[in-house]
Each structure stands twice: as structure tokens, then as C-alpha cells.
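mind reviewing this fold:
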Amino acid sequence: MKTNYILIDYENVQPKTLSPLKGDALFKVLLFVGASQAKVSFEVAEAMQALGEHARYVKIAGNGPNALDFHIAYYIGHIVAKDANAFFHIISKDSGFDPLIKHLKGQKVLACRSKSIDEIPMLKATQIAKTGKAEEKMGLVLASLHQRVTKPRSIKTLTNTIQAIFSKRLTDEEVANVLETMKASGHIQVDGTKVSYGS
């Protein structure tokens, strides 16, 4: 199983809670706090404490443009050198991280940016698996496929990928509905057992 590293740009985003991450050993949280930030909310501090060894604060030593961003980039490099299978989730509204994410993907390092904890694809998938329609599930699958360096090229591999995105919470019928929705909307074409991608 991949370890998911959540790197929170606390200068840019102050999450009200980290409770969606509680009790999940697949997540490790690094909360990056700016040099001039003196406080972290009680709710976040309590959630960080509850995560125990899976959470850590990184206080930036100096001020300057993008100082915190450079620290996040450093930690990603440091972690990936030890854990090549890691998945990095940068929590920030700062689109300046996007070129870094594009570069990481080019190096076959899994990474994405979300504007909030709730938008992390894995967590969103859990909620959509419970309550979402086939179109919502398809949207999440397409977003996940867009982040990948290579896309599944067979029905079997795509089916397994969809199950993995939703942590095997979907029935076979629900997966089939997602595939049919993808075909009907022109996102995939199926020729026998082979899959190709459209718009």
C-alpha cells in the first residue's frame, strides 16, 4: 500500500479539522507553518496530536517570497528519496505548486494539489462511493486518470483501477455503470477488451 503524505501550506489554507484523516495509517501529515504565524487552531492541534507519529509540524525559520513553498518542495524530495511509492497531496490554493506537480509526474512521482482536506481524491472517493451517482463517480475516475502518467489500456485493468480509486467499495454493478457512463459520454472507446481514450 502507498503511503499518502499530506503537506499542508498553513499560510495559505487553515483547515478547520483534520478529522477525515483520523485512524488511517495510510496518511502522514506535515503541517508547514510560516515564520510569522504564531498560532494553530485548537481543532487542528488536537487532530495533529491524535495522529501521533503520523503527524508533524514544520516551522519555517525565515520570511521571504515562497519560503514555505520551497520547504514543501524540499520535503517532497527528501521523502521520495526514501519512499519512491509515496503519493503526495499538497493542500494549498496556490497554483504556483502546479509546475512542481507536473515535473513530479514526469519523474513518475504521484502528486496532486487540493484546496482543502475534503478535496483529497481518496477522501472524496469514500464519500462519493457511499452517496454518488454514476456521473459523479465517473468524474472522480477521470480526475484520477488525468493525474496518471499512463492510463489503463484494457477493460480488466480499468475495472481494477476504478475499484482501487474507490478502495474496493463499489459493487461489480456500480463499476459496470461507471464504465457505461464513460463510454456513453465519449471518454472511452472499447474494442473487444482494449480501451482507448477520447475527450
